């Protein structure tokens, strides 16, 4: 295989056009085979093969800086920069990241897995090179796959146009983010310029006008003026150039010779310039090309001969999908809001039933939150369905646009806690710490699929402030009616006769129950509570916890400032003569690498054995404290 000889970008520059075509086909086959074993982002990478090859043939990475937004479209970049032999470890513990990773390669400048940020990095790097006299270094920022729907990209464009920094922006326009991209800038222009019928008819009219005696040349120029005016109406070049950014395109993003020629020309420009490349997401792999919704944007392990099975929501996501349809049926004011992820968050059934009641804002989480506040002001009841990691992009809007105005926006937060193979940026570890600091915010955490419907009903009944319901990725526990809570009350899971009380949040309830069983084998009967309502905490639960010598809180979020800290503070404010010792268990203050979620939780001591071990480790300390207190009393 030709691919076996490619170990660095320099190896690409010796290839003929025919060899490049062969290499592109081999890379697509390699990606399909690799992702079928490890899972990962498939469609976006199949679409950027030629674009990546052209960039690395024209520019000298890492001397020239090649940046990717979003980072999930950088597999080809990884393959041609010396990491092909490790691709069987993609997204596996200790293996390659699914995104650019600075520690993996000098060719990776930014660990970029959230969208719409790369132009800001590019502006900063270009500024640094300019001020340090490194005028020969180029900054190439590839942005696309929906990233241009995020507001931060436009903030950076505005500053690049103002500063005039020398940045080449490659707009990878595949018309999509996770699903088809939302926004007029992403539509219309590409279709018009590349539509075969339009091009053919334009050429026919031009030839006819040119043949009119005496006035043909003038008619043709007039036609060109009309065409230019129409193009200005539908085409983004006017938009970019109004910001001070030069524009070239659109160009076929799978035509390597043309891409190389235009990239080389653009590289000579002394200011910011956009090269608009139109690509096909999922190109070259039938199942991806046939997937109308997301072009196999991401995929689990699958058989490459048949492609991945049709994706359907599972676990908590499915429970939320069912709950949304139920509340939508009852209340026509309920709206659903998604940031380009209607399918992954479980909103597709709601959208199918009431298409006008779902709003997809694109990759624009800040706008989603503030728009939701406006909807509540107008009498609607919006539910924002979003991943935990992406919600953190809109903390200011939650705090000031929703919380400060005490608007009853409901946030349904998927992928909360440790998520696994997507890596540090995609673990949902900060939502509890952030949301519990919003005055008037109610925070709920279901421990079973059945709790989701109950909590969504509870959330929509609250009309004087925002509510957040957070739940994890993956399977959901199925329980009977007797194991489902109600309202804003915690649920007593098990009454123990010992001195230990375990207060568990959401998914951690099951681990706490296992810990209680393990402790029982050691002769220690522990009380277990399902916290359910992280804020406001249930006074009955706190009263009971205060009667125990040791309280252990367990959450799958950052330990500092999270649910456990809130519980510890509430217990410390009590007037009880003897306060319990509180042990807070959670994720430490560090970024957690990608690995199997269960393995990560076990390593952090957040599984049943780990919780039991923490309880047993605290008991000698309790005994020593009790002995010391008795000596003081006796003395």
Describe the protein.
Helix content is 42%, strand content 15%. With 635 residues, the chain is α/β, with parallel strands linked by helices. A seven-stranded mixed beta sheet has the order 9-8-10-11-13-12-17, with helices on both faces. 50% of the residues are buried. It contains 24 helices and 19 strands. The chain has three domains: 2-299, Thiamin diphosphate (ThDP)-binding fold, Pyr/PP domains (Rossmann fold, 3-Layer(aba) Sandwich); 315-470, Thiamin diphosphate (ThDP)-binding fold, Pyr/PP domains (Rossmann fold, 3-Layer(aba) Sandwich), CATH 3.40.50; 497-634, Rossmann fold (3-Layer(aba) Sandwich).
Topology overview:
Elements: H1 17-38, E1 40-41, H2 43-46, H3 49-58, E2 65-69, H4 75-83, H5 118-131, E3 139-144, H6 151-163, E4 167-173, H7 189-194, H8 196-210, H9 216-234, H10 237-242, E5 246-252, H11 256-267, E6 273-278, H12 286-289, E7 298-299, H13 315-330, E8 334-338, H14 348-353, E9 358-360, H15 365-377, E10 381-387, H16 388-391, H17 395-403, E11 410-414, H18 431-435, E12 442-444, H19 449-461, E13 467-470, E14 491-494, E15 500-504, H20 508-521, E16 526-530, E17 533-535, H21 539-545, E18 550-558, H22 563-572, E19 581-587, H23 597-603, H24 608-634
Parallel strand pairs: 2-3, 3-4, 4-6, 5-6, 8-9, 8-10, 10-11, 11-13, 12-13, 15-16, 15-18, 18-19
Antiparallel strand pairs: 1-7, 12-17, 14-16
């Amino acid at each position: 295989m030709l691919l076996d000889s490619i170990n660095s970008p320099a190896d690409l520059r010796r290839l003929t056009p025919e060899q490049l075509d062969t290499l592109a086909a081999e890379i697509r086959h390699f990606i399909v085979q690799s992702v079928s074993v490890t899972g990962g982002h498939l469609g976006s990478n199949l679409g950027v093969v030629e674009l990546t090859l052209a960039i690395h043939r024209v520019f000298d990475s890492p001397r020239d800086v090649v940046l990717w937004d979003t980072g999930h479209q950088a597999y080809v970049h990884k393959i041609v920069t010396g990491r092909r032999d490790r691709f069987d470890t993609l997204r596996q513990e200790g293996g390659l990241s699914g995104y650019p990773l600075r520690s993996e390669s000098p060719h990776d400048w930014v660990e970029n897995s959230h969208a719409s940020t790369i132009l800001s990095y590019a502006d900063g790097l270009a500024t640094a090179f300019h001020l340090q006299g490194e005028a020969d270094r180029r900054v190439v920022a590839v942005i696309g796959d929906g990233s241009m729907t995020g507001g931060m990209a436009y903030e950076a464009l505005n500053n690049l146009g103002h500063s005039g920094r020398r940045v080449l922006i490659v707009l990878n326009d595949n018309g999509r983010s996770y699903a088809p991209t939302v926004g007029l800038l992403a539509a219309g222009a590409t279709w018009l310029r590349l539509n075969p019928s339009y091009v053919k008819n334009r050429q026919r009219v031009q030839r006819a006008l040119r043949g009119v005696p005496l006035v043909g040349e003038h008619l043709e120029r007039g036609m060109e003026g009309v065409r230019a005016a129409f193009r200005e109406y539908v085409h983004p070049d006017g938009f970019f150039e109004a910001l001070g950014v030069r524009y070239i395109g659109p160009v076929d993003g799978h035509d390597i010779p043309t891409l190389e020629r235009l990239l080389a020309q653009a590289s000579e420009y002394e200011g910011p310039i956009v090269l608009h490349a139109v690509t096909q997401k999922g190109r070259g792999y039938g199942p991806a090309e046939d997937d109308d919704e997301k072009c196999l944007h991401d995929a689990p392990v699958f058989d490459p001969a048949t492609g991945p099975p049709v994706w359907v929501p599972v676990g908590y996501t499915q429970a939320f999908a069912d709950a949304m349809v139920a509340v939508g049926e009852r209340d026509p004011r309920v709206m659903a809001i998604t940031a380009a992820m209607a399918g992954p968050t479980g909103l597709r059934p709601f959208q199918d039933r009431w298409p006008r009641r779902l709003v997809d804002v694109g990759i624009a989480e800040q706008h989603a939150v503030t728009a939701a506040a406006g909807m509540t002001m107008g009498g609607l009841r919006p539910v924002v369905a979003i991943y935990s990691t992406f919600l953190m992009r809109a903390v200011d809007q939650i705090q000031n646009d929703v919380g400060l105005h005490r608007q009853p926006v409901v946030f349904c937060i998927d992928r909360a806690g440790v998520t696994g193979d997507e890596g540090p940026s995609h673990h949902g570890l900060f939502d509890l710490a952030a949301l519990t600091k919003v005055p008037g915010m109610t925070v709920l955490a279901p421990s079973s699929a059945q709790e989701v419907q109950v909590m969504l009903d509870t959330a929509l009944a609250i009309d004087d402030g925002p509510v957040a319901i957070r739940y994890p990725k993956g399977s959901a526990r199925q329980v009977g009616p007797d194991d489902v809570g109600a309202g804003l009350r915690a649920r007593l899971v098990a009454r123990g006769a010992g001195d230990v009380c375990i207060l568990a949040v959401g998914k951690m309830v099951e681990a706490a129950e296992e810990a209680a069983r393990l402790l029982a084998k050691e002769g220690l009967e522990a009380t277990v509570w399902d916290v359910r309502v992280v804020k406001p905490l249930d006074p009955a639960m706190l009263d009971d916890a205060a009667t125990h010598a040791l309280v252990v809180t367990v959450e799958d979020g950052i330990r500092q400032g999270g649910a456990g800290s809130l519980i510890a503070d509430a217990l410390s404010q009590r007037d009880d003569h003897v306060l319990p010792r509180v042990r807070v268990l959670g994720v430490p203050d560090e970024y957690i690498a990608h690995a199997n979620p269960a393995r990560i939780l076990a390593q952090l001591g957040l599984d049943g054995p780990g919780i039991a071990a923490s309880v047993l480790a605290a008991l000698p300390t309790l005994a020593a404290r009790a002995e010391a207190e008795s000596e003081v009393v006796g003395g």
